[in-house]
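Backbone shape codes
____________________
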Amino acid sequence: MKIPEATYQYQIKQMKQKNPNETWETLILETFEKHEGRYGYRRIHAELKTQGYPVNHKKVQRIMKKLGLKCEKFVRKSRYKSYKGTVGKVAKNRLNRRFHTPHTLQKVVTDVTEFKCTNDEKLYLSPIMDLYNGEIIGFSMSKSPTLEFVMDSLKQVLPIIQERAKYRTTIHSDQGWHYQHYKWVHTLKENKMYQSMSRKATCADNAAMENFFGLLKQEMYYGEQLISYEALKMKIEKYIHYYNNDRIKQKLAGMSPVKFRTHASQLAV
């Protein structure tokens, strides 16, 4: 070959080493599959960065394009409407689209959404979210949108609020009949919680919860075959646990809601 032996041995060693791009492709593919195709290149880049991998976001985007990895978007479908006019007390809009707060449980939001199941059944979900970190702190599911179904999610969060809230809590909803009902209003007063409501037919006033419903349906419901009520219930429970504990948010410094809350409480000690 008429080349120095040292040069020859170096080239052989380089040929045996794994291609760096193959390593990145493996990491990106594993992260994409771990989150079941729910992450785009920005979130995958954020997660790799959190794990200590120094990779540029443009490289992640380029590799994902090469591998055909794409976080599919959804087309917004019809939404459940619980508004039946003024059937009780309509509260003023205290929140007024101020969705951010530096204090846990100072502002929480709630709403009801609907899913179709097999056998012409429907599943109704009533979650309650803490705007401090976007964490779902309580939720209930039912085959019909009854008052008790909505009250159940509220009863779940009352002990949490009493234990952890440093400031008086404001709970925001739309003007659905559940939230105008005497039982809902009286329970809030008993527990010294402020009530806030969106303006009529203005879903942007509760954009934080609408955004959660969009993510939930985009990432585990739209594009999938209809399944039974019980199977969908289990699937939603699994997703909410994933959303709270594993799904990172860029506005939370690349942490999940629970990790962000835990990290903030440790810093405060």
Q: What stands out?
A: The first helix runs from residue 5 to 16.
